[in-house]
Amino acid sequence: MITLDDSPIVPSRIPTGLARYRDRRPMARGGNGMLQSGFDQIIGRSVAIKMLLPEHRSLPSFRRRLLREARVTAQIEHPGTVAVYDVGDDEELGIYYTMARISGESFFDVLRGIAQRKQDTVAAYPLKRRLEVISEICQTLSFAHACGVVHRDVKPANIYVGNFGEVTLLDWGSAKVWGLPALDNSDTLLPTSRSGHFGAVIRSVRHRDGDFEISPLTPAQQLIGTPTYMSPEQIGNKNIDERSDIFSVGVCLYEAMAIAEPFRGINEEETFDNICSRAPTPPCERSPGLGIPQIADDIFARATAKQPSARYQSMRELIDAIHSLIDAVA
């Protein structure tokens, strides 16, 4: 039973900065920042606190990025995003922002559990439920696109499924916002050898045996996004719009159905080549024993077409297609 304390003990003196949050404990750590849990002793609620790693706290470019991430996340007010509560600049620990603390598991962990044949995960996430998760993420992205925001890093690791079935899209730090300046010069870095991929003859991806991969590929160049989910135009450093997110969702859709990755190569270079100039095995053929409806092949192929003009032109179109796919699941 959930109980609420109607007589909280409020400090006689309102603390400032991170002193407002007691019982801070590490939650996660990334390449640039870290996440802590804490208790807001003024409001009386648990929060998640994101801040920079010590080596980045004094660097203006990293401070700007974290502030930008907080503002973008805060302005996309939707059930499928995390609510931002506060932004601050602590004298000792630097810039931070606080947000709702969510509980559950990442969709990546769900797919990995299915690949590892964990019976409780398999039972909790049949094909229809996995498709529903993707559909809900599409709803969030549709709202974001209407607000002029392209996520640019949609992947199962950024999809969180809560303990009560809620689905949240995390990490808007790489988002492109129409009308706002780019993050910095790093998101226009282009490996020039990749520009020749466009218009190449489409060959087949050379799939390798093995379950859903555990280790992510990290781009050697500072491209915005995650290699195995990037659209061809992201890789080629072309102008992107919501159709780039549609491509990334298409990759997630494939993984949710086939429990396999459509474009992963042995390294970043082969992965980029697969995305830009090779066609993966259709999901029905890749995983014939998982009950994937035949129409899934066409939906995936259109969502991940090499040219943006050949894809679904809006997230709403993709949502309608996924709903028809859900209806076709036995």
From TrEMBL:
It comes from the Bacteria. SUPFAM superfamilies: Protein kinase-like (PK-like). PROSITE patterns: PROTEIN_KINASE_DOM, PROTEIN_KINASE_ST. It holds the Pfam family Pkinase. One of its GO terms (molecular function) is ATP binding. The keyword Lyase does not apply. Residues 21-326 form the Protein kinase domain. Keywords: ATP-binding, Kinase, Nucleotide-binding, Transferase. This is Serine/threonine-protein kinase PknD. SMART domains: S_TKc (SM00220). Its EC number is 2.7.11.1. The keyword Nucleotide-binding applies. It is an enzyme of class 2 (transferase). Gene3D superfamilies: Phosphorylase Kinase, domain 1, Transferase(Phosphotransferase) domain 1.
